[in-house]
Specification:
Number of strands: 12
Protein name: Nitrilase
GO molecular function, one term: oxidoreductase activity, acting on the CH-CH group of donors
Organism: Streptomyces tirandamycinicus
Strand content: 35-45%
CATH architecture of the largest domain: Roll
InterPro entries: F420H2_bilvrd_red/Heme_oxyg, Pyridox_Oxase_N, Split_barrel_FMN-bd
Keywords: Oxidoreductase
Number of helices: 4
Shape: globular
Oligomer: single chain
């Protein structure tokens, strides 16, 4: 090339060519334009945020905007939801869960309305009383008995619950206190059948009998 001329590259990469004999001012202008374009793109490339979509099944990366929810990441309808159960006609696995050895909780309302929760043994009889019955044997001087009696003759709204890893079950209903010897003896026999031991004789033993109104769980 002669003085006052420059070569201006055309295109990028190994296949790019160079235009020969372009007047120096024109060639320099082209070089400056290219440099300005590169300079203006650099901050954008450096500051452009990256968003990562996390999934149990796969992950993907998008530039410039957050990933929108994908159908593969949504919980399928019906999975991991509470299940309402008829306490008089429970399905086999639910009833079997109540036949296994599990400690339970009994929740009763204190006179001030706050919940009182204790560990108990529970037996479940879906055919009892026409509504299904849950029974808890206890001492007549216990706080849970006092809470039930304080609710009056209609009984207290209570719940018994048991949990085993991902399985759980709750029975709700109206509790009353039964002191009849035959009722107590029947409740003790049911307790022994479920828990594999017969409680020691106790003249102060009574039964908290729960007429069931609702059952729910996942078992």
């Amino acid at each position: 090339m002669r003085g006052g001329q420059v070569g201006v590259p055309l295109g990028h990469g190994p296949g790019g060519r160079c235009a020969q004999r372009v007047p120096a001012p024109v060639g320099q202008l082209g070089v400056h334009v290219r440099l300005l374009l590169l300079a203006s793109a650099l901050p954008m490339a450096m500051t452009l945020p990256r968003y990562t979509k996390l999934s149990l099944f796969r992950s993907s990366t998008a530039r410039g905007s957050p990933s929108s929810p994908d159908s593969s990441t949504r919980t399928p309808p019906g999975r991991f939801r509470d299940m309402a159960i008829d306490p008089r006609h429970p399905h086999e696995s639910f009833l079997g869960f109540w036949r296994e050895y599990h400690l339970c909780t009994l929740t009763t309302p204190r006179p001030d309305g706050t919940p009182h929760v204790v560990a108990v043994g529970v037996t479940y009889d879906p055919e009892g009383g026409g509504t299904g019955i849950a029974r808890v044997i206890t001492n007549k001087r216990s706080r849970k008995v006092a809470n039930v009696l304080a609710a009056g003759p209609e009984g207290a709204a209570v719940a018994v619950c048991q949990v085993d890893k991902g399985r759980w079950a709750t029975l709700e209903g109206r509790a009353t206190v039964r002191t009849d010897p035959e009722v107590v003896a029947d409740a003790v026999a049911r307790y022994a059948e479920r828990y594999g031991r017969t409680p020691s004789p106790n003249p102060d033993r009574v039964v908290i009998e729960i007429a069931l109104t609702r059952a729910m769980g996942r078992a």
